[in-house]
Structure to design on (358 residues):
């Protein structure tokens, strides 16, 4: 059992890769801003911060933008890092925009991703000192976030900020066992999450100094195949695979129809592991994941709303809470906004701020 990233790293591909990077159309976006040549954090950390902060700046709530980090904090707590959730909450409270302090705390927050992606490694390195970004790294992160926002102004809007491959709700356990999968996941690939979807394109973010590689193209192909197998409706309209690299300010796009059918079948069977019997404990593993997701929702609800509360929404402006209804660890909040009237939203995902005084 492994994540998509782990499978990509260890899979031996044919010469040039299952999908050759040269098949992708390359588009360079003009930008006069130059990045500093040196950074003191890993490309993976910088990439996650650019990804998650872009989601936040574009309107996602912090707990939604940093969803995997929040789940990772719950995993860390379950692994014995007793105050992990409290630490993560304190980091989130410091993230307010693109100022230096916000970027520093975003870098600290994404450390919790490791508990979700490689939990045992994270547990072993728990006590290691983590470096904060230096001035060059902070500036580069800010520039790449701004480039990302410009990219979405041209290629967006995103229809999904972050996606997984959970089964649609009415899929029976018998059907999943027969297909050897749990939604898009299998016994071989039991976790993994992608970056963005638009109406017709599955997008991945990379901040490498290198151009597109066969590891990235395999990752994209796996995401698309797993999305199709999940049966989720958001993947039905996807007909392109894309990568945006804000470090190089370059876009790479490929039509799905240009991928050979035999390549798709090989990756389905030999890399992801469809058609293999699914052990009974697979369902148990996914149940534990789903419980962690629910725990993340409970642990990271930063505001609980009551009738009469005054709130500020990033898009709709100020309003007053008319009614609140509990819903699966979250709240359905009915709000009368001054500008747009009455609307309902989920408290845990809407970009809402409680105003302490009118």
């Amino acid at each position: 059992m492994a994540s998509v990233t782990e499978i990509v790293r260890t899979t031996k591909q044919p010469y040039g890769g299952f999908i050759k990077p040269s098949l992708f159309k390359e588009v360079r976006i003009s930008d006069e801003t130059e990045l500093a040549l040196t950074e003191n954090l890993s490309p993976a950390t910088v990439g996650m911060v650019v990804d998650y902060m872009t989601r936040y700046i574009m309107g996602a709530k912090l707990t939604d933008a940093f969803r995997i980090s929040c789940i990772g904090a719950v995993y860390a707590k379950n692994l014995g890092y007793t105050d992990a959730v409290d630490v993560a909450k304190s980091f989130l409270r410091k993230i307010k925009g693109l100022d230096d302090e916000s970027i520093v705390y975003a870098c600290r927050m994404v450390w919790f991703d490791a508990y979700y992606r490689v939990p045992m490694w994270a547990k072993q390195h728990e006590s290691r000192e983590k470096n904060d970004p230096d001035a060059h790294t902070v500036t580069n992160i800010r520039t790449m976030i701004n480039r990302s926002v410009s990219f979405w102004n041209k290629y967006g809007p995103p229809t999904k900020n972050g996606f997984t491959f959970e089964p649609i709700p009415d899929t029976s356990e018998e059907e999943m066992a027969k297909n050897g999968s749990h939604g898009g996941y299998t016994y071989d690939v039991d976790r993994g999450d992608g970056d963005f979807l638009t109406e017709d394109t599955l997008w991945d973010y990379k901040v490498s100094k290198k151009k597109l590689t066969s590891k990235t193209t395999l990752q994209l192909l796996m995401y698309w195949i797993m999305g199709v197998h999940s049966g989720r409706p958001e993947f039905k309209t996807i007909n392109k695979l894309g990568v945006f690299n804000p470090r190089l300010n370059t876009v790479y796009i490929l039509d799905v129809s240009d991928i050979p059918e035999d390549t798709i079948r090989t990756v389905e069977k030999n890399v992801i592991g469809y058609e293999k019997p699914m052990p009974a404990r697979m369902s148990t593993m996914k149940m534990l994941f789903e419980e962690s997701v629910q725990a993340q929702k409970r642990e990271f609800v930063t505001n609980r709303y009551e009738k009469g509360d005054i709130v500020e929404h990033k898009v709709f402006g100020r309003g007053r809470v008319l009614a609140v209804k509990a819903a699966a660890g979250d709240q359905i909040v009915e709000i009368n906004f001054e500008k747009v009237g009455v609307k309902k939203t989920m408290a845990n995902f809407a970009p809402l701020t409680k105003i302490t005084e009118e």
Observations:
- Residues 281-285 have pLDDT under 50 and may be disordered.
- The longest strand covers residues 317-327.
- The chain is about 40% helix and 20% strand.
